[in-house]
């Protein structure tokens, strides 16, 4: 896909971070943009910014774990703009803690958003996109955690590995049917977003103010030189869409992953070390 002008993009989890940057980038390329998020205040601010860019905008509060709500959102997107060319299943949350410390409710909440949110997006949008037989592209947001495990991140890792499997199957299925719909798995490394603020809030306790949480998150980002901005991430994503790349990595970690893969092939027991970006 080379020319985005006049086409339409859908972005979930659009009110902040990577989703916001993707929506702004799409608008800068002349695309109509449908955006959804649970944070209505931030979503309204984004929608106004997109309208100032001179493109069509539809913004809707949306819980992606609610399949019926996602279907209604999709119906409204197609009603307003007739076709969808880019679908970004981006909404996601993060939770930290050892496997045995996570409640069933915590597991269900995270998986309902990170995994079923992607499934609901595909079920709501893909049938019409497939029937249209138009050039299009689906981008599901995974993570470096789609490929490697990390201590304290069982829920998140499980969800992002599931997104990887879903996305790979989707790519094969569309190819086998000869459909002109590309598929990508976005595997970001450290990106300066507020996804960790919920975790930081719980760590700081009930007395933490929004300013304290934001300051702690900013300090975390500032302390790691690997962090990139959401805007840089969005540029990488759109370049990858143009090149029809399945794997979209924001950070190179081929050496680390090659070593991990060799260990698996050699039957070596798992051992943990921080992911190294090279």
TrEMBL record:
It comes from Zhongshania borealis. Residues 7-194 form the Ketoreductase domain. Pfam families: adh_short. Keywords: NADP, Oxidoreductase. Transmembrane segments: none annotated. PROSITE patterns: ADH_SHORT. The keyword RNA-binding does not apply. SMART domains: PKS_KR (SM00822). This is Ketoreductase domain-containing protein. Belongs to the short-chain dehydrogenases/reductases (SDR) family. Signal peptide: none annotated.
């Amino acid at each position: 896909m080379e020319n985005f002008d006049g086409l339409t993009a859908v972005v979930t989890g659009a009110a902040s971070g990577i989703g916001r940057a993707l929506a702004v980038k799409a608008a800068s390329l002349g695309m109509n943009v449908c955006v959804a998020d649970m944070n209505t205040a931030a979503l309204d601010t984004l929608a106004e910014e997109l309208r100032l860019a001179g493109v069509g905008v539809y913004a809707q509060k949306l819980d992606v774990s609610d399949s019926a709500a996602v279907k209604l959102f999709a119906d409204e997107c197609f009603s307003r703009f007739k076709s969808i060319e880019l679908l970004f299943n981006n909404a996601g949350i993060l939770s930290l803690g050892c496997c045995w410390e996570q409640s069933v409710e915590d597991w269900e909440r995270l998986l309902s958003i990170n995994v079923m949110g992607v499934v609901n997006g595909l079920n709501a949008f893909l049938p019409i996109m497939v029937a249209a037989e138009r050039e299009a592209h689906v981008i599901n947001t995974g993570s470096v955690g789609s490929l490697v495990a990390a201590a304290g991140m069982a829920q998140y890792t499980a969800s992002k590995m599931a997104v990887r499997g879903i996305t790979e199957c989707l790519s094969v299925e569309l190819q086998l049917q000869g459909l002109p719909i590309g598929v990508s798995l976005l595997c970001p490394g450290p990106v300066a977003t507020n996804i960790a603020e919920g975790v930081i809030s719980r760590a700081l306790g009930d007395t933490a103010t929004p300013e304290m949480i934001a300051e702690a998150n900013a300090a975390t980002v500032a302390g790691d030189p690997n962090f990139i901005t959401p805007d840089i991430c969005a540029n990488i994503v759109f370049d990858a869409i143009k090149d029809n790349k399945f794997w979209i990595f924001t950070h190179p970690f081929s050496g680390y992953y090659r070593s991990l893969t060799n260990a698996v092939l050699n039957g070596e027991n798992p051992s943990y070390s921080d992911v190294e970006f090279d």
